[in-house]
Amino acid sequence: MSDEKYDEDARVLDSVSDLESDGETLIQSPESEDKDTLEEYDEAERLLTEEGALSKQKKWKDQKTRKETRRGRRREQRRRSRSGAQADESNSVYEMEEGYKDSSSNSSTDSLVLKQKAGLSTNAYPASYLRWVPFLVGTIFLFAILVYGAYHASTLSKAKETIVSSMSNGTHVFAPTTILISLDGFRADFLQRGLTPSLNAFIASGVSPQYMLPSFPSVTFPNHYTLVTGLYPESHGVVGNQFWDPHFEEEFVYTNTSISMQPKWWESAEPLWETAERQGMKTAIHMWPGSEAHIHGIDPTYLDPFDFDETLPNKVARILERLDLDTKDRPQLIAAYVPDVDRDGHRYGPNSTEIRATIASADNMLTLLVEGLLRRNLTEIVNLVVVSDHGMATMSAHRMVQLDDLIDMNLVDHLDGWPLRGLRLKNPDHDVPVLYKQLSDAAEKHGTFDVYTRETMPERYHFSQNPRIAPLWIVPKTGWLVIEKADFNIVDAIANNQVFHPIGIHGFDHEHPLMRAIFIARGPAFPHAPNSRVSVFQNIEVYNILCDSLGVTPHGNNGTLRLPLQTEGLHSDFADTSKTPNDDPADIGHADAEIEAGTDATSLTDPTATVDNDLPADKEDNVAEEDAKKNWWKYLHDQIEKAKDWAKQVMDSIKDNKANDNDPKPG
User: Residues 177, 178, 196, 220: which is the catalytic one?
Assistant: First the structure.
């Protein structure tokens, strides 16, 4: 059949499809279709026997394809005529399915006719339809996921809107505002000493874990940068209070601000104030480590440089002064660093009489702050978050190892860290494996320190993936020191009853009880029942929590927790299993042990026990949440004068002991 005849045949068939009268349609019989098929094969046979069979076979296939296309068009027209107007919707579905199938496939009707002619059985649901079942099921499943995702997103959006909505104190409108207070060196069990009525009442009214884990190493600068970036120290780059950078070929020393406050040390991360400022918020940062470094060229709107001598009442006045600014000038993030507990913990030790007064003073600072919020009617408008960065352990000359007795100090190029000892060797390729074996043998003998390379560092430390981390480390057990003889001769000190200073040290295993920190939060972004308890978490989570409280999008970080926090009940629901960590310097052989609390620990597991309650006994269990809030603020207000007088008496009693002491820097 020539191309011309094929085209003429197509035109004739197209015209036949138009011959309809009174709903009747001319339908080609199956026998006619069989005749066409036989003619096609005859034509194919003739073409194959002629010269150039292969090229003509191709021409025949092309003719066959075009003819099948037109035949399919005739079948579709006949089917539409049979089904009528009522089948329009099903036709659309059919066309969609046909578009998915191979173009050479026959319609279901043609398949049925051929099966009947071949004597084959027929099914109610042809295979061409069954192949679509997985597709349809998958489509329905995907649609269900999308619907759930949209619902979940809208729920989160509503929750976020609740958190970040503006509120009025009756005279001024406040955008979402969060005050962050860091009590450097405030160990978690300090809450059990009967010295912190305000903090314990804060726990009773807010949400908190039993304690918060710092990051490794548990020293001030790395952990304060973790708190405001959500990154492990190995990720944000401030890996210690003192370390060597092989790229800069320079040493970071936190006490030398001309070096440590250069941006280059900090710019592997984005701190919270930068996150907020980039998203249009004003921030006020008071003495926070790293805040003076001009990171990425973005400074807080209001910045107070470090002042070691600033008093706690002045800090409170500074915070309230920021809240009193006009709306257009008022910061939404206020972060304040409080070094006092860390300072006196180093100077006198965490078990001293002096530290008791300092702990009470820090607690009184919170009372003064809350009273200022109460006067401004901001207690239910401003979020208040109190954290610490690490704990503290007591040192003794009887718990020391002389580094010079372990290695040849002439092999060492740089010593990083304190109390951890990071060794950078002059010939690392040769000496690192040699000294690693030598020190590991000594560690097994002494049992008071561990030895790691970057490759063998415990994964839970997250302390290996940064060139600022030395290739070889001596990690003392908590409460022990490895020290150079030039700095402190252990044998001579013991012989002469010499006391090692500082008396208090931190920086050890971040999971040890003596290193535990605190996290307590309260405010509109924390809509939890009073006294709520959450599972223990690490301080990498704080950044996300603070971002959510402000309604800003966090920068990339290692944290996973988001607001609202998932609680595990109330502190009062749990049996009192709290223990005071063993920190007795005379207990040389059990540095990692714990002993039962010597003071009342109910203030942590049931903080409401410390709160005055004038309600009748039969109504105590039925106090509404709002009443609980009011009682807490009233309690703080009523305790102000008591706390002031008590702290003054204690401070006066030890004033002479402090007068001639040196001032160690926070660490």
Answer: 220
**444 and 534 share one domain:** no
* Residue 220 falls in the annotated catalytic set: yes
Give the integer Cα–Cα distance in Å for 339 and 347: 12
pLDDT in tens, 120-166: 343 444 455 455 555 565 556 555 555 445 444 444 444 444 456 78
Whether the Cβ atoms of residue 549 and residue 178 lie closer than 8 Å to each other? yes
Q: How far apart are CA 638 and CA 644, in angstroms?
A: 11
- For residue 202, is it within any domain? yes
* Domain region containing 469: 397-501
660 exposed, middle or buried (CB, 10 Å; 0-12, 13-18, 19+)? exposed
As a residue count, the chain comes to: 667
Nearest to 346 by CA among 513, 503, 517: 503
Over range 255-274, report the average pLDDT.
97
Residue 332 domain-assigned? yes
In a domain, 131, yes or no: no
In the chain, what's the furthest Cα-to-Cα distance? Answer: 124
pLDDT tens, position by position, 53-110: 444 444 445 555 555 556 656 655 555 544 444 444 433 333 333 333 333 333 333 4
Query: What is the SS3 assignment for 650?
Result: helix
CATH of the domain at 461: 3.30.1360.180
Rg of the chain (C-alpha set) = 39
Question: Which residues are CB-contacts of 403 (< 8 A; sequence separation ≥ 6)?
Answer: 409, 421, 474, 482, 483, 484, 485
Half-sphere exposure for 503 (CA within 13 Å, toward CB)? 19
Q: Given the structure tokens 């026997």, which residue do they identify?
A: 49
Specify the CATH number for the domain of residue 243: 3.40.720.10
Q: What is the pTM of this model?
A: 0.71
Q: pLDDT > 90: what percent of the chain?
A: 60
495 with 562, same domain?
no
pLDDT at position 582:
73
Axis-axis angle for helices 353-375, 340-348 (nearest 10): 170
Same domain for 264 and 337, yes or no, is yes
- Rounded (10°) CA dihedral 61, 67, 70, 74: -130
Q: Are residues 235 and 287 in the same domain?
A: yes
Query: Do 227 and 335 contact (CB within 8 A), yes or no?
Result: no
Domains in the chain, number: 3
* 555 in the same domain as 626: yes
Residue range 509-547, pLDDT digits in tens = 999 999 999 999 999 999 999 999 999 999 999 999 999
| Cβ atoms of 424 and 407 closer than 8 Å | no
Q: Do both 490 and 536 map to the same domain?
A: no
Do 228 and 325 lie in one domain? The reply is yes
